[in-house]
Amino acid sequence: MGKIKILAFVLACIFLVSCQGVRKEEEKTSLRIGISLYRGDDTFINNIRSILEDKAKEYELEKGIKVTLDIQDAKGSQNTQNTQVERFISLDCDVLCINLVDRMDASVIIDQAMTAGVPVIFFNRQPVEEDMNRWDKLYYVGVDAKETAILQGQMVVDLYEESPETVDLNGDGVVRYVMLEGETSHQDSLIRTEWSVKALKDGGVPIEKITGGIANWERSQASALMEQWLTAYPDTIELVISNNDDMALGAIDAMERAQVTGVNVIGIDGTTPGLEALENGKLLGTVSANKELYASAIVELAASCALGQALPEEYPLTDGNYYWTPQEILIHEIKENP
Ligand code: GAL
């Protein structure tokens, strides 16, 4: 009997404490979000960053909850990022949004977050599944790499079906291409490279690879590679397939320097400079994630985690913790002269 009373007392205490916790969260009128970017100078990440800032302001206005974003650049160093996370936690951030430097090395950040009880939204650089499964307050916002690649291949398949001569430039029945790849350790590079080519082959485009190389998402590295390829394979390249827009723009830079015209270039991201090149016809096409949704999913997910609320229905999660942003093909429209 005595034991039952003690148990009832303990349960009542737990109930009271948890109710207080809920009341405390309900009363929250401000949120502090710690954001660390793997590299602040990455074009796509920079685009997402500025939309994140807009979305945080929109959330603040709509909900009347003050949102403070503390955005840090890890400058390509996992150690720096780990220290930034330590600082975020010491400053009582309610939630963290982390664009990992090394996606295989999330353990220090997860340990720190779990100890402090601070939820984490990873984005763009996906932690391995084993890490994601360590805690139920870990989320990921990104883009499905296989879907991106299939869309990238599909845009050329559609064009080839419509007018083969715009893809097979010399009309010899073979489309010769070069491939520009992102960082080797990035989940997107390998999958995009493999599946874009597969989509082209499956779609019946007679492609043949000339060469390819890793340019780590960077315009200048891609430009240097393309310069070499233009010299090594003069008048041969018909298509440049790039894992992202920045490297596609690098290839375009090299062609402009070498005064080579007519080669089709396709990218991924729909970044601001990418869209500009698309508009003026230098870039044939790109696959663009819906960046408004990408950034709002991060902000909404972060805020609902911090406030202990359910995530709004517009952002359905797959496998409990993943939000996959919708994406679309954007292709250069050849405007007929009126
Ligand atoms: C990719 C994107 C690249 C680069 C990279 C950084 O998804 O296409 O341009 O931003 O993420 O992790």
Characterize the structure shown:
The structure is a single chain. This protein is of the alpha/beta class. It is 47% helix and 19% strand. It contains 11 helices and 12 strands. It has helices at residues 2-26, 43-63, 78-90, 107-116, 129-132, 145-162, 187-202, 219-232, 245-258, 272-279, 291-307, and strands spanning 30-37, 66-73, 95-98, 120-123, 138-142, 175-181, 207-214, 239-242, 264-266, 285-289, 322-324, 327-331. The strands form 3 sheets. The chain has a 6-stranded parallel sheet with strand order 2-1-3-4-5-11, sandwiched between helices. It has a 4-stranded parallel sheet with strand order 7-6-8-9, with helices on both faces. Strand 4, helix 5 (129-132) and strand 5 form a beta-alpha-beta unit. Helix 2 crosses helix 11 (291-307). The protein is elongated and about 70 Å long. Residues 10-25 have low confidence and may be disordered. The structure holds beta-D-galactopyranose. Beta-D-galactopyranose is lined by residues 42, 44-45, 124-125, 182, 186, 188, 217, 244, 246, 268-269.
